[in-house]
User: What shape does this take?
Amino acid sequence: MDSLIASCKESAVQGMEYFLRNFSFVPDDKLTWTPTPTAKSAIRIAAHTALYAGRFARMIKERKLPSSDNLLEWLAQRNAEEAAITSRTEMESIFRKGTEEVIAALDSVPPEAIRTSLESGLGWSLPMTDLMNMPGWHATLHAGQIDYLQTCWGDQEVYV
Assistant: This one.
């Protein structure tokens, strides 16, 4: 089980670093650019990704998913928190802090909790192992959205 925890911690850090590296190539004048009026901008995607690190840490630590009882309220609060982040520096600080919280939360998972599933209250469950792997996966997933936005504004550069 120690190797699973170590792997999840490594994935969370690598996912964050990969996302931040990709995001570093977004020009300042493109931070709020969107391909359509209802699409998310690079800074909004980054804010979402950064804030979820801390959210995942809380879910892992508490071994509890957001309650379906107040899901709409929770989503509205989430959206407002994301919209309030408007700078790279703030986003990166939140992301790094949240990833540190993920590491601590993963260290707190007792062996008997690893094989459990968390109930959503919406008729589905999430294996704890999936939640433990989610921070790294989530960051990598959203890095792809940043890549896509870059192609939309004509940036065809391959950054290695």
